[in-house]
């Protein structure tokens, strides 16, 4: 790992990070939009810690990658590797509220008991058909194609349903050869199709009225507030990096529009 990255758009340097394919694919896909670094303080670009017994500690590395474009307010990815097993990619692409666009969200998490896979184009206003229906008509066939090939991720909490689309890809898959096979043959092409759809609707998006822009902004703030309040990684991050740093990271870096 580099001791310092110049800005958020500079490639991360965590070696043998499980989810590197997905971040590299995202970076390459968005290069056509001439992205600019999203402003992130140095103390959040790279963070290092350790866990386990003092006689044989395991290293924890976290790097934050991000950018912005004319239509994307903030795209950011939290990339974490802890020891030999734990590996996390938390990617959220937040569009400008001047466009009727969803969030792009991908949470890929490897823990000692398996992989958690969450992928979606998440609405800012789920009950607004103008905001959702055009996109959902394109997304649902992609979801049906890939979700049918994966084990379910289980029930989603009732309060969270407002923040997911009908195209929410959600799975729990095992570690080892079976999981690796599913990641390579199902998760990678599914991610590519979700990302391609997002790029296409991003290219086609036109500015909305100021009144509608204000409505979208309210929806985006509600989404960000919920994500920050319910972030499932909070406990793990506090264990690695402490309470104050973690709360600042969640509220002012990962979900900074509240």
Write the layout of secondary structure elements.
Elements: H1 20-30, E1 36-37, H2 42-45, E2 46-51, E3 58-68, E4 72-82, E5 86-95, E6 103-111, E7 114-122, H3 129-147, E8 169-173, H4 177-204, H5 210-229, H6 234-241, H7 243-254
Helix pairs in contact: 1-4, 3-4, 6-7
C-alpha termini separation: 32 Å
Helix content: 25-40%
What's the number of helices?
7
Mind telling me the C-alpha Rg?
Answer: 18 Å
pLDDT averaged over residues: 96
Helical/strand content category: alpha+beta
Would you identify the regions where 5 or more consecutive residues have pLDDT less than 50? none
- CATH architecture classification name: 3-Layer(aba) Sandwich
Note the beta-strand portion.
15-25%
User: Using DSSP, what is the number of strands?
Assistant: 8
CATH class: Alpha Beta
Overall shape: it is globular
Order of H and E elements: HEHEEEEEEHEHHHH
CATH topology: oxygen-dependent coproporphyrinogen oxidase
As for the number of domains, it is 1
Main sheet makeup: 8 strands, antiparallel
Written account of the structure:
There is one protein chain. The protein has 258 residues and is an alpha+beta fold. It has a single domain, classed as oxygen-dependent coproporphyrinogen oxidase (3-Layer(aba) Sandwich). The chain contains 7 helices and 8 strands. The protein has helices spanning 20-30, 42-45, 129-147, 177-204, 210-229, 234-241, 243-254, and strands spanning 36-37, 46-51, 58-68, 72-82, 86-95, 103-111, 114-122, 169-173. Strands 1, 2, 3, 4, 5, 6, 7 and 8 form an 8-stranded antiparallel sheet that branches. β2 (46-51) and β3 form a beta hairpin. α1 (20-30) runs parallel beside α4 (177-204) and α3 (129-147) packs antiparallel against α4. The longest helix is centred in the last third of the chain and has 28 residues, at 177-204. The mean pLDDT is 96.
């Amino acid at each position: 790992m580099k001791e310092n990255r110049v800005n958020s758009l500079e490639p991360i340097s965590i070696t043998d990070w499980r989810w590197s394919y997905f971040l590299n694919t995202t970076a390459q896909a968005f290069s056509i939009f001439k992205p600019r670094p999203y402003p992130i303080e140095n103390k959040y670009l790279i963070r290092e810690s350790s866990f386990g017994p003092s006689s044989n500690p395991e290293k924890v590395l976290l790097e934050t990658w991000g950018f912005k474009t004319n239509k994307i307010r903030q795209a950011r990815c939290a990339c974490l590797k802890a020891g030999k097993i734990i590996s996390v990619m938390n990617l959220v692409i937040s569009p400008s509220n001047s466009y009727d666009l969803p969030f792009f969200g991908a949470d890929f998490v490897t823990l000692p008991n398996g992989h958690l896979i969450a992928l979606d184009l998440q609405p800012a206003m789920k009950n607004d058909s103008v905001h959702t229906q055009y996109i959902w008509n394109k997304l649902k066939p992609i979801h049906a194609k890939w979700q049918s090939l994966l084990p379910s991720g289980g029930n989603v909490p009732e309060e969270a349903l407002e923040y997911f689309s009908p195209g929410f890809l959600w799975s729990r898959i095992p570690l080892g050869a079976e999981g690796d096979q599913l990641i390579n043959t199902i998760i990678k092409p599914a991610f590519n199709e979700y990302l391609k759809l997002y790029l296409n609707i991003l290219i086609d998006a036109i500015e909305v009225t100021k009144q509608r822009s204000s409505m979208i902004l309210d929806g985006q703030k509600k989404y960000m507030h919920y994500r920050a309040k319910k972030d499932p990684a909070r406990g793990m991050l506090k264990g690695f990096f402490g309470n104050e740093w973690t709360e600042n990271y969640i509220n002012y870096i990962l979900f900074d529009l509240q």
